[in-house]
Structures are given as C-alpha cells and as structure tokens.
C-alpha cells in the first residue's frame, strides 16, 4: 500500500484569527500554528521566543554526580575516555564532550565502536582496551543506558563510568557513578526529549557552571546537526538548539561544518534545517555506515580548513558508496517482496539477506516502509547471526511489536518508529509469524499524509514565503507544511533534467501554478492533460541570480473527488483476502468480480495492450468507483491466473492467445465462493 491517506488538519479560523491578533502574527502563519494545535498563549510565545532560557541542567537526575566525578578526574589528571556512537548523533555528542573537556585541560581521548565488528554501544573488549590505555573514567554519550554488564566489568578493572544517554532505560540501570538519562522513571522533567547530543549539551553546561549560552555560542552548529539527524521533536529546547545552530552554520561554523557545506554544494548559500537534514547529516552518518565514524569525528574536530576539506572529501565518498550499496540492496529486497505474496501482503514485512551491509539496512527498511506503507524489518545474516533494523508508520509501535517476540531475539532496542534487533537464523520464520500475529491483535492503521491547510494557487507568492519562513526551523514535530491544492486541471507536462523530472502546469479559475514532480519520467507519470486533480505540495524558496521565487514541489497527486475512506477500506479488505484470512459472506460478495466486470477489465487491457500504472488509475480510466479497488485487484489476479493477462515487474500485459477459459477453473473465484457458501462461479 504505497498510497497515503490524505488527512486535512482541522483549523478553527476564529482561533487562528485570535492567535494572529494577540501575537501580531501574519494570518497565514497563525493558520499553520493552529493546524498544529499551537494556540495557547504560552505555547505560541515559546515557539517564537528568540531569547529562549534553557532549563537548569541540575534538574536532570545524576547530573550533579556526573559533574563531581568528571571535575575530579580533570583536577587529578586522570585519563578520561568519551565513549560515543557511530551515527551523526553519537559523533556530534562525542565531538562536543571531547572538545569541551579538552578546552578545560582534561587528559581526554575518545572511542567510537565499529558498526560492523562491534555493533552499538559499549562492549567488554573495548572496555578492556580502554582500561589498558590507562583510562580511569569513561563518559558515554548517546549510549550506555543498557550497558549493565559492561559497566560492571569496567568496575572490576578500576574504571568508573558516567553514563549520558537519551534512550529509554530498562527496569535495571547500570551501576555507574552517574546515570544521566532524562527518560529515567525517577526523573520529573518539564522537557526530556533531547537527542544524545542534547543530553551531552546539558552535562557540558553543568560542567561550565551552568552557562548554557557560552556553550551554545561555541558549539551550536555541532549540537544542531546531531539534534536534527536524530529526528527528535523540534520543540522546547530542541527548537532553540536548532535555531541557534542554523544561525551559526550560516554565519560562523566550525571548519568541519564549513567543509561539509562546500563538499555538498551548499557553500556560500543559506542553509536551513531542511538543508542540514539532506546535505550535512547524511554525510556524517555515511562515515559510520560505510567506513569509520572516526573520520566524521576528525572532520568535526578539524582545526584548519585544509584538514577539514580532506576529511570532508572522504565522508562524501562514503556517502556516494552508501547510495550505491543502499540502492542495490533495496532493489533486491523489493524484487523479492514483489515475488512473494506472503511477504508483500503481510502486515509487517520481514525481509532477510546474506551479508547485507549493516550500515544501510536501516535506510533500506525506511524505503520499504515508504513504498509499501507498512512496518518493515530488514535483517542481514552473517552465518547464523542476524542483525535487523526496523522502521514503522504512525500508529504502530514497532518497538512493542518486536518486544512481543523478545524470547526469539538475542537483543533488541529502539523507539516506536524505529528499532534494532539481533536474531538467530533458525528463529526467523517463527519471528515473522509471531510479529504478524501481534500486528493482527492491534487495530489496523494506514499511512497518512497530513495536509496542513488548503491553498488557492493565486496566493502562491513571495508574501507566502515570508509567512512560512517565520515557522522555521523545520524538523520532526514541526515539519515543513504540506498544502492541499484542490480541483486543478493539468494543462502541461514538460520533462526536465534530462527527462528525470517533470515540470507540470495546472490551472484553476483563471490562475495557474507550475510545480515540480521530481524523480518521475513522462513514461511513469499516469496523469493526462485535462485531468482534474488534487495536489499535496511543499513550497520552498528558490533563489536564482538574485531573484527569489516560490518553488512548488509535489509530494502526492490524486484524482479530485476521491473518497479515501472507501478507497482505503477496499485496499485493506483486499490485503486481508491475500493474507489468506477468513472473509464474511458480505466481504466475499463485495470483493468478487462479476463475469461482466471481468470481461470489462479484460477488454480494456486488450485495447491498451498493457497497463503500466497502479490500480487507482486503472479504476479511474475504466470508470469504476474507488471503492472497487479490491474487486479490480482481484479481477486482475483472476485473469492472470487463467492466463489471459500477465504481471511483469508491476505491469499488466495482455497475454491471451485466443484460448477459451472457464471461470470455474479459477481457484481464486472458488475460494471466494466458499466464503459465500457457493461451489463455483458461473
């Protein structure tokens, strides 16, 4: 189910008008805030507060103990090791903690485990190596909350541990000198949703005598990149961190961030939080995925331009390699899913491969979830040992789903939307069955696309850009607004970018709008000039030769007047049937195509010669209502089963050689009839 259900946010226009008047805001800005539930006086003031006051770090449990032990190590010239992680959050956390400790005279080093050979978090071999190097204190950043055994082992070697982490703890905390994690049950904080680098920031502020603004002025660019990369909600302190960080990235970044800007093609240009998401953060992540995260760390710690550019070129090559490997695995995985109906129609997709690069399986899982609109878990096996990465959709906790199968796993952890796990090969089939049983036990959900508000094409201008800029920085919890432009007529289709993209022109009531549909060729585009469509779009600023104009980018398109409740209900019913579940007589009757329906589909495909687009477009072109989705899909399956049509790489091909067929030979029809108490289809 690649299609997302459009959900239009409710906006009380009277409330929006009141917000605009009370806070002297542009009316359009107030509309977007209202669509996101930001209407209370204090919430609106905080959203736009450019003099945000960070909370006292000592409100977080154990910060006092952490500061006491770290300061003792500094004063006694004890060797300190900052133990980080290989993703962008972990790398920036390490850079922040290491840089600050170095600046105050600490004898400090760092350690980041290898993603492939060591995996996430502390491990006893690393602890032993660190201890042998003379270290007396380990400070973890972005990890450590689950390192029960490793912390105990460190104590036997005479090494103290201070844990700073943001992942949810289990019932048992590590026996460290201090465990700084805002998600501890005994922490009662007004805000707790920092990234790992945010927690490290709070500890550093405490070490710095509570002077947060001094730390922000020095490290905001690094802290912001980690915060954005970890996809934590950009509200409260996170929003302030990113606001300060974006300003520093554009005015006075460290050598490493400036080099990243240059190598990613945004040097000399203004870059907002969205640009950080797509240009800077992936390159830092790529080093840990494809090679060594220490390269990215050395980039951020660079003290001159030339050194930084050398490391930036290396991480850029890692990013290119990541793209190649990711695309290869994704292509293989999708091909396997398309050829295995048990996988394709499962509520949770579990796909396995041998020797898949651990650094990209999370991205592959995200791409599969995006394509099929359902939770997915990608597992890479090295012999009998499997490492998995999971991604989900709103409304389904993949963490809870995995936890329901914890007896089959060697380890697991994560969040509602993303998780990781370890599993033996012998347990994979049982894991697939069990996690799908869990999915069947909770309410079904479909992926949604939230439309913040409707937009008339006549209002797309530079004034709108100004209204939108007031809402930045964008990110998780404050995503770029998506606008619904309804009932426009497609008037022109123009391929651009060597045919890889489309520039589309639409008209409505005398107004017109030109929008980009990226990564879509003319052959792949299913709509025709004259179609009446709805658009879900984002609007960005486009600067060219000093001129600023709005750039409209299409996120989704649908036929105007689509009843999405009926469409998605029909989609879910079809998937239920394909999974082999029992249908009620009423459901079976609804899904079963009549002889006339089958003949109509057959004749249409025969006339076309082939069909290259999805079922929703097929329904429209054949004049069928959208609630007939399950009937149309079933009709195509029956015609393919009888040899009249053929499915080939998502295309429906006309296959009939003039042979005569009997509908009673269809196992699909016979199964449907069995639910209705019939013996066959006449």
What does this structure look like?
The chain is an alpha/beta fold and 682 residues long. The protein has 25 helices and 21 strands. The strands form five sheets. Strands 13, 14, 15, 16, 17 and 18 form a six-stranded mixed beta sheet that branches. A five-stranded parallel beta sheet has the order 3-2-4-5-6, with helices on both faces. Strand 2 (79-83), helix 5 and strand 3 form a beta-alpha-beta unit. Helix 1 (13-23) packs across helix 2, helix 11 packs across helix 14 (305-338) and helix 12 (273-290) packs across helix 13 (293-301). It is globular. It starts with a strand and ends in a 7-residue tail after the last helix.
Please describe the biggest sheet, giving its number of strands, its sense, and whether it closes into a barrel: 6 strands, mixed
Residue share in β-strands? 15-25%
Please give the number of β-strands.
21
Kindly state the percentage of residues in helix: 40-55%
Radius of gyration from CA coordinates = 28 Å
The span between the termini is 31 Å
Mean pLDDT: 94
Q: What class would the helix/strand composition place it in?
A: alpha/beta
Helical region count?
25
Q: Which consecutive residue ranges, at least 5 long each, have pLDDT under 50?
A: none
Assign an overall shape.
Answer: globular
